[in-house]
Write a structure and sequence with these properties.
55% helix, 2 domains, 4-stranded antiparallel sheet
Length: 311
Amino acid sequence: MSFATDVRNELARVLPERKCCQKAELAALLSLRTKLEPGAGGGMTLRTTAESAATARKIYSLLKETYGLSSTVSVLEKKRFKKSRHYGVEVVLQPGEGQELLDDLGLTDAAHRRAIRPALVNKNCCKRAYLRGIFINRGFINRPEGAYHLELVFSDTRLPAEVQKLMHRLGLEAKISERKNSLLIYLKESEKIVDFLRLVEASHALLAFENVRIVKSMRNQVNRQVNCETANLANTVDASVRQVEMIERLLAKVGLKGLPPSLRELALLRIEHPDSTFKEIGMLLDPPLSKSGVAYRMKKLENLAADLLDL
C-alpha cells in the first residue's frame, strides 16, 4: 500500500465534530465524482464513487449527519487507474431536495460549473475540512524517503484556482501546473507539506513524515560534515607536500644554518611530520606555539624561499 493511500485512509476516518465542517468536507468529497439523475415523481438520484471503503463510509455518514439522508453503498467492479474495485454511494432525493442539496453545498453555479460556496469555508476549521475532503478525493503525496511532493489533481478548470486561494489563506503557498488533460495544485517544500498534513489532521502520516525528514536531515548533515572534513584533509595534505618540497629545496641551497634560528626547528618538524596540522606541530615546538603562530612562521619560511629560490 502506498504512502498516499495510507494518508487518504487515515483522513477518511477523521469525522468533523462541527456541522459546518461536516458540510464543507462533504462538499469537497462530492465536488468531483458526483452525478445527479432524474428519478421517479420529480425526484433525483445522487450517485458518487469512492476509491476506498473508508471514503464511502465517510460520505454515507456525512449525508446522514448533515441532511438526515439514508444512502446505499455498493461495490463497483471496474478497471480504473489499474484498480478494479471502487465503491458507489447512492441516495434517492425527494422532489426539491436535489437542487437544495446542490445549492447548499455549492456543487453547481448558474453556469452549472462546480465552485466553492464561500459560506462553506468562512471559518478556518471549515477550510481545513474542505482541503481534507479534496485530498481524499484527488490527493497524492510521495513517500518522504523520496523527493518531497504533494499534489491535488483536477479535471475541472475553475475549481483548482479556488482551492489554491483557499490554501493561500491558510499559509500554504501552492502552485498550479498542467499535466496532459489535468490541472494540479502542488507543494514541494517539506515544511509546507508538513503544514498541510497538520492542517488536515493526518497526525499519523505527519509523524511518519517528520521521522523520515529528521533522519534525512541528520544524514545530509553528516554527509556535509564528512565532505567538509575530507576537503580540509585534502587541502592540508596538499599544503604539507608543497611545504616539505619547498623546505627540502631551501635546505639544499643554504643548509640548516642558513635559516634564521626561529625557523630552523619548524623546518625540521615539518619534514619529520608531514601529516601533522599546524596545531599539532605547534605543540611539538619548544616553547610551544599556537596554530596562528606556526602559520606566521611558515609564511616567513615561504617568503624566504620565494626570495632565495625565485619561486
